[in-house]
Every structure is written in structure tokens, then in C-alpha cells.
Design goal:
- The longest helix has 20 residues, at about 1-20.
- Strand 7 (about 235-240) and strand 8 (about 240) form a beta hairpin.
- It is globular, with a radius of gyration of 20 Å.
- It has helices at about 1-20, 25-30, 35-55, 70-75, 90-105, 140-150, 170, 180-195, 210-220, 245-260; strands at about 60-65, 80-85, 110-115, 125-130, 150-165, 225-230, 235-240, 240, 275-280.
- The chain has about 290 residues and is of the alpha/beta class.
- It has one domain: 3-Layer(aba) Sandwich (Rossmann fold).
- Helix 6 crosses helix 9.
- The strands form two sheets. Strands 3-2-1-4-5-9-6 form a seven-stranded mixed β-sheet, with helices on both faces. It has a two-stranded antiparallel ribbon with strand order 7-8.
């Protein structure tokens, strides 16, 4: 247990340092114009459209885990919800607070430092819990999902995203193919152990997961998946060198996404992002005698 706790703290410290140094990049990505930014912007819009489809009552309690620069949190407040946003990185919390102040909605939004493994909220506190772009940056998925389920009200909803291990652009690039990822990690670990290589912030990266793994983890946490889709195609590369211009990459992304949205085999399951909506079942009513 102590070994796991130490490894978790070390990994989290590395992730926090990465986002502390890259906070402006993750803020500006929602205003950038390359295909990578386009995918993140569409993810943002898709999540908000799913939230709208839930028809939550004004004043509903919403928790966003990993709020980043606060764009999602502010958009949720503007829909009439009371939002609690947390992030493990101080720079992100400050950006989110500034965004809330600029939007003049600070009275409906609280932003604090928080730990996704130990949410500082009572059981059943929220009508909706979101973790957008969080799962790829944590070491163990199921404890975080269990915490999300714990703080969700019975009958409440959870929306989360994961980086899809079977994303098409990685499958097509031999250097990024998930089949060789374990070998790359082994080589790096061996070089670090021998003292020939030292870990740096450049080594911090997102972890991809299989869609079925995410679905099973949700089920183990007591959540019932009600909706899911993959989203995003590109950037396409060969040995990590871009093969297409940004305008052409965006056109190709949109065309492949239309195929995915129509449920065309292969494309429907190979988008870069996996977005899931799940519900926490309400307790059954006692049988009437």
C-alpha cells in the first residue's frame, strides 16, 4: 500500500508539474486552429450538447473534476447550474478563477485545488459529475470512478472522456502503434535504471485506454452506461512526422467523423476521444403490498 501511495504521489507530482508549465497551452487550445485543437473544441461542444440533452433543473449541483482553465465550468454556470470545479494544478485553478471573474459568474462557481482520488464532498452531493480529459492523466482509473460515483446523487449522471487506445491515427503510424508502447516503456525504464537516461517533463504523457476497459470500470463503480461515442481523427503522421497540411487534416477529420457518427464499422470505434455518459441508478421503490 505504501509503495502504491508513493508511486501515485510521484506520478501525480510529475503530471502537476507538466500542467503547471503547460497551462497556457491547454487554455489556448480552445482558440487554436489546427486539427488537434479542432478535436478538443468538438469534444467540448459535444459534452455541452449532452449536458443540454439531460434537461437538468436550474440550480442543479454540478462537479467538474480537472477543470483546467475553466471554460467548461463557466459554460455550465451560464446554463444556470451551481458548479464546483476542482483541479490538482494551482496554475489551472488561477486561470479558472480569472475566467469566472471575467465572465462575472464567480458567485455561482467555486474553484479549488482537489484530488480526484479523494473528493472532498459528501456522498450523493451532485446531480452531474464531469471529468473531461482527466482519465488519461491518472494512474488508476477505477478508484477515481468510484469516487465520482460516490459523490453523484442516485439518479444523477456522470460524463467522462478517455483517450482511445484504438485511435486510427496511432494505428496507422508504426511509431505510435499501441502494440509497441510496452517495448518503448521497457527501453526507457532500462536506460533510466542504468543511469544512461534521466526522466524529464518531456516524458509526461497521456495514457490511452480501451473503450471496453472504460465501460467495465464504470460498471464496477456501479454506474450504468447510457451513451458513448468516439470523436476525432488526426493528426495523421508517419514516424511522428505530419503527413498532411492542417487544412487538409481538418477536412479529413470531419469526413471520417461523419462516417463514425453514422456507425460505419472501424470508424465508429477509432476516434481519438471516447466520450461516455453514465447514470447512477436510483434505489428501487419498496414493493406495494
Amino acid at each position: 500500500m505504501k509503495k502504491f501511495a508513493s508511486a501515485h504521489l510521484e506520478q501525480q507530482a510529475g503530471v502537476n508539474a507538466y500542467f503547471q508549465s503547460q497551462s497556457l497551452f491547454w487554455k489556448d487550445i480552445y482558440a487554436s486552429s489546427d486539427v488537434y485543437a479542432e478535436i478538443h473544441q468538438e469534444r467540448h461542444a459535444t459534452v455541452l450538447s449532452w449536458v443540454d440533452s439531460l434537461a437538468l433543473s436550474p440550480g442543479s449541483q454540478v462537479l467538474e473534476i480537472g477543470c483546467g482553465a475553466g471554460l467548461m465550468a463557466v459554460a455550465l454556470v451560464q446554463r444556470g447550474f451551481r458548479v464546483h470545479a476542482i483541479d490538482s494544478v494551482e496554475a489551472m485553478v488561477e486561470l479558472a478563477r480569472q475566467h469566472a471573474a471575467d465572465a462575472r459568474i464567480a458567485d455561482m462557481l467555486t474553484v479549488d485545488i482537489g484530488d480526484s482520488y479523494a473528493l472532498a464532498f459528501e456522498d450523493g452531493s451532485f446531480d452531474l459529475v464531469l471529468a473531461i480529459g482527466v482519465i488519461p492523466w491518472i494512474g488508476r482509473v477505477e478508484p477515481v470512478m468510484q469516487e465520482m460515483a460516490r459523490v453523484t446523487k442516485p439518479g444523477g449522471q456522470v460524463i467522462l472522456t478517455a483517450d482511445n487506445r484504438a485511435r486510427l491515427n496511432n494505428l496507422l503510424d508504426p511509431w505510435l502503434n499501441p502494440m509497441i508502447v510496452p517495448l518503448k516503456h521497457f527501453v526507457k525504464d532500462t536506460l533510466e535504471w542504468s543511469g544512461l537516461r534521466h526522466r524529464s517533463l518531456k516524458d509526461i504523457g497521456a495514457t490511452s485506454h480501451g473503450c471496453r476497459f472504460i465501460d467495465r470500470s464504470l460498471a464496477h463503480a456501479g454506474l450504468v452506461k447510457t451513451r458513448g461515442k468516439t470523436l476525432g481523427f488526426g493528426p495523421f503522421s508517419l514516424f511522428r512526422r505530419s503527413m498532411l497540411s492542417q487544412p487538409l487534416s481538418i477536412v479529413l477529420h470531419h469526413r471520417l467523423q461523419r462516417l463514425a457518427d453514422r456507425g460505419v464499422p472501424v470508424f465508429r470505434s477509432t476516434g481519438a476521444q471516447y466520450i461516455v455518459l453514465a447514470a447512477k441508478p436510483a434505489p428501487s421503490s419498496p414493493m406495494q403490498l
